Give the backbone structure.
Amino acid sequence: MDLILHPTYFIDVVSLVHLYHSNHVTLEIHDNYVKQTYRNRCYIAAANGKLALNIPIVHQKTGGSVPYNSIEINRTDDWATQHLKSIKSAYNSSPFYEYYETDLHELYRDIPKLLIDWNIKTLHWALDLLNIKKAIQTTDQYLDNDKARDLVTAKQIPILNTDPYIQVFQEKHGFLNALSALDLIFNVGPSAGVYLKSQYYLIKNTK
């Protein structure tokens, strides 16, 4: 199965399931920037429920479409420190947060200027920690792909309801679907590959 993905701020678990079961993965780098997507946000499970972590961007003065690969991260806000604090607050009691905390802080020490570069960096970081080996290429031109567009859209019902795994605050809020891969990493750790493999039945008949 071939998969096209728009680079996002820490790939979400639904997209990660698709990636895990794909033979070829291509990152779309020639699309336009679209609001209300995972391009500049991810979701984690916090004490009060689902929490969005948003990356501020530099807004370009244009009335038309803006290439995603030209979007810069706004560095006037100390958003990275706030995100790290929120992640720690959410997952400090999870089984594997302390195990991966140093790796997470190391990742945030060098944030690229462009949003797309940062998102690709977070993707490779997550895949490395989960020991997922995939050959990933990038597009030479824009590929209009319905599944890629559905996966990147944050403000709609996720295209899959993955099986529950143990989450922090689950007794309070129930299982939260389609959270950031951070949620899977900190709650499941090295067993994440087993979980992702078990989700094949959800996508085997999808195009």
